[in-house]
Design a protein that fits this description.
The protein has one helix at 69-93, and strands at 2-5, 11-21, 25-32, 35-47, 50-61. With 95 residues, it is α+β, with helices and mostly antiparallel strands. The chain folds into two domains: 1-64, no CATH class; 67-95. It has a five-stranded antiparallel sheet, with no helix packed on it. The protein starts with a strand and ends with a helix.
Length: 95
């Protein structure tokens, strides 16, 4: 079970169910109070030292005032931009 905060500062509860699909993919199902989400992740080797992560998500909001698709996409990109920077720093350090 995951607790997360909304923009209003309220704590909500949701569940993340991750199914690993070795060697190169995994599937996410999120069930939350305000939305449900399904996501698929796949790693693709681009060469000896390059890998691409492809992601596809479908989100279903259950509440009024849900973000538009553009707002949701922008928020997701902001989160992943930070995550990518952290991954690249870890890789550069050899972690």
């Amino acid at each position: 079970m995951t607790k997360y905060n909304t923009k209003k500062g309220e704590t909500k509860i949701g569940v993340n169910l991750v199914t690993l699909r070795p060697p190169n993919s995994w599937h996410l199902e999120f069930i939350g109070e305000e939305d449900d989400e399904v996501g698929d992740y796949r790693l693709k080797r681009l060469g000896p030292s390059r890998t691409r992560l492809d992601m596809r998500f479908v989100e279903n909001y259950k509440v009024r005032g849900a973000p538009s698709q553009a707002e949701d996409t922008q928020h997701t990109e902001e989160i992943w931009d930070k995550f990518v920077l952290a991954l690249e720093r870890d890789y550069a350090r050899g972690s």
